Every structure is written in structure tokens, then in C-alpha cells.
Amino acid sequence: MRTTSNPAFRNLPTGGGSGNYAGFGQPYEAQQYGGYQGAPPTTGERPITIDDVVTKTAATLAIALVTGFVSAWLVLSGQVQPFALMIPGMLIGLVLALVIIFKRMPSAPMVLAYSAAEGVFLGAITGVFESMFAGIAWQAILGTFGVFGAMLVVYKTGAIRVTPRLTKWIIGATVGVVVLMLGNLIMSLFGVNMGLRDGGTLAIVFSLVVIGIAAFNFLLDFEAANEMIRSALPAKYAWLAAFGLMTTLVWLYLEILRLLSYLQRD
């Protein structure tokens, strides 16, 4: 399935192998190169497997967690002002993300650099929230990985199937909440409070909706990665899959962190 709300998976090249190659729902034996039923990719490169996606995603997460921990510690210890880390991390991450998306070619150094920058950005934000609400950081981390794990189980078991109709619904909902968030930001610049981010009841409901939509975006990310495997793209494309999953994780973590801050206010 090529249709996804995650720009990291847009316009993927056509693989050179059989559509029956192993995916997230296939047995482990079929994921090995020897279990490939069609001709190998015409590029001569080893085709991507689920193990490639898992290891590359784990590497990006590890980088983000390490840089995030260091960034949060620097903020909490008072050694660095939050914005001194937050703004550079955000800008560098944004630039790298745009380059990765528009380049349309996987690059391990760029994906890892993006993860490091996002870790610095998220760590600085987390440090600020942790200073106001003790323990919120671990709650947000556990909540994020809990949602990720739950959606992976849902996808692997087929409890919710990624149909064209569901895909359109998720993309439409994603675009809708993004437009609302941008509208809320613009209106706030003019002193207008739409109630979406003020910590009130509407803000809590809105955050819950956004978290739900972000969670469903994982289904599209898993399906896009599975499509890479079925199409037998070269193994290097696992970095692109890892990047796509990382962008959704960043979005989900920020929204969970925001929701928890609402719930812990007096």
C-alpha cells in the first residue's frame, strides 16, 4: 500500500522481487533470504527483511533515548537553558527530515543524525515538564512505548486490517487535526483562545483524539514497511522505515506528554 499519511513512505520505488516476500505477518523462516520465493532484486542488493527494519528502528530509538537523556539532564541540572537545546534540536531535526523526505533515498547517517537531533529537542522539552511535574517523563515514555506495542500487536494479529477505506480515514483525520493545531497556533498569536491547548476539558479531549489518530498512524507505518518487504526493496530501505516510525513516535510522545501535564495540573 503506497498511500500513507507519513511523508517518509511516499513515492517508494518499485521493488524487484516477488510480492510474496516475508512481512510483519510472515513466519520468521520466510523472512530469511533463503526463503525468498522470487528472483532477487535487479540491483543485486540483498532484499530487506523484517530483521532489518527492527534493528534499524532500534538503533534510531537508542540514539534518540541517549541524546534525550543527556539533554533532559542538562536542563534539569540547570547547566543549559531549555531553549538553547530545544530550538537547535527542532530546527536541525526539521531540516534533516525534509532532506530525507525529498531525497527519497535512504541514508543511515542522516536518519541517525535526525534521531539525535530529535532526542535533544524532546529531552529539552521533557526537562521542562519534569521540573514542573515530577515523574512525568517516565510516564510519557512508558505510555508511548505502550501504545506502540499495542498497535504492533493489533497489526500482527490482524485485529484491525489496513484497508483502503481505513487508510483514507486515518489520512483525513491526520490532516484534520494538523489543520486544527495550525489554526489554534495562528489564532493564539492574535490573542484568541480556541481551548484546544489551554489544559481544559476540551484540550484533554482534543489530546486524546490526537493520541488515537497518532496510534492509528502506526498501522499505516507498519503496512508501508511491510510493503517494502513484500516488494523486496534493497535492505538499505530499512533506514527509511525506521525514520518513518520515528516521526510518528515523536508526535505521539509529545502529545502524551502534553496530556499528562493537563491531568497533573491543580
TrEMBL record:
It comes from the Bacteria. InterPro entries: BaxI_1-like. The chain crosses the membrane at residues 58-76, 82-102, 111-129, 135-154, 166-190, 202-225, 237-254. The keyword Membrane applies. Keywords: Membrane, Transmembrane, Transmembrane helix. The keyword Signal does not apply. Pfam families: BaxI_1. PANTHER family: CONSERVED TRANSMEMBRANE PROTEIN-RELATED. This is Bax inhibitor-1/YccA family protein. It comes from Saccharothrix hoggarensis.
